[in-house]
Design brief:
The chain is 58% helix and 14% strand. With 201 residues, the protein is of the alpha+beta class. The protein folds into 2 domains: 75 residues, no CATH class; 116 residues, Tetrahydropterin Synthase, Chain A (2-Layer Sandwich), CATH 3.30.479.30. Helix 6 runs antiparallel to helix 8. The protein is rod-shaped and about 135 Å long. About 5% of the residues have low confidence.
C-alpha cells in the first residue's frame, strides 16, 4: 500500500469521529434547549413570591380558630333576625273571644287576643279554604291550649301589669308550642300576644 493511500485512510477515520462528535454535541444542545424552553414556559424562571413567615401564618391560623370557637360558643343567630330582614311584622286577631271563670273566684274573664309575627302573613294567617295559614289550620288545638292556660289565672294575677305580661308570655309559648309540634318549625313564629279586649266581671 502506498503512503498516499495510508494518509487518505487515516484522514477518513478522523473525519468520521469528528462527524460523530458533532452529531452528539448537536443532540445534547437540542435536548438542553428543549429542557430550558420547557422550564421557561412552565414558569420555572418566574420570580417567586416572598415566603410567608411561619410565625405569622401560625398566628393567623390561631386567630381563625378563636373566631370559630367564639361562634360555636354563642350559637347560631336566631331565625327571627333573618325573618325581620325579609318580612314586615303582621298581625292577626282571633275572631271569637275567650271566656273563662277566674281560678278560685266567681268572676268571669272575657278576653280577645291578637298575635304578631315576622313570618309571611299568608303562611301564618291566610283563612281561605284549601290554602289556610298555620293559625287557622290549627285553630282548634290553639284555642284549647289558650283556654287551658286561662282557666288557671287568678284575679290577683290580672290585677297587676306584671301578672298580665306573664300571662301573655305563657300564651305565646302555648301557641308556638302547638305550631312547632304540627308544622315542624324550629323557631318560634309568634313574636307577641296582645289583649285586644279584656273584661272581668
Amino acid at each position: 500500500m502506498s503512503e498516499v493511500d495510508n494518509e487518505e485512510s487515516e484522514g477518513g477515520g478522523k473525519g468520521g469521529i469528528l462527524k460523530i462528535i458533532l452529531i452528539v454535541i448537536g443532540i445534547l444542545v437540542l435536548v438542553a434547549g428543549t429542557a430550558v424552553g420547557t422550564l421557561f414556559i412552565t414558569g420555572f424562571f418566574d420570580e417567586k413570591p416572598a415566603e410567608e413567615d411561619p410565625e405569622v401564618a401560625l398566628e393567623e391560623i390561631e386567630a381563625e380558630l378563636e373566631q370559630t370557637e367564639e361562634g360555636l360558643a354563642t350559637g347560631p343567630e336566631p331565625l327571627t333576625a333573618e325573618i325581620e330582614q325579609k318580612f314586615l311584622i303582621s298581625y292577626y286577631t282571633f275572631a271569637d273571644a275567650f271566656q273563662v271563670n277566674l281560678f278560685g273566684s266567681r268572676k268571669i274573664m272575657q278576653v280577645k287576643l291578637g298575635l304578631s309575627t315576622y313570618y309571611d302573613k299568608d303562611t301564618m294567617f291566610n283563612e281561605e279554604e284549601g290554602t289556610s295559614g298555620w293559625i287557622p289550620r290549627h285553630l282548634v288545638g290553639i284555642r284549647a291550649g289558650i283556654l287551658k292556660s286561662l282557666r288557671k289565672v287568678t284575679e290577683e294575677t290580672m290585677n297587676t301589669d306584671e301578672g298580665q305580661q306573664e300571662l301573655l308570655e305563657e300564651l305565646r309559648l302555648v301557641i308556638n308550642e302547638s305550631l312547632e309540634k304540627y308544622e315542624k318549625t324550629t323557631s318560634a313564629p309568634i313574636e307577641e300576644v296582645y289583649f285586644t279586649e279584656l273584661i272581668i266581671q
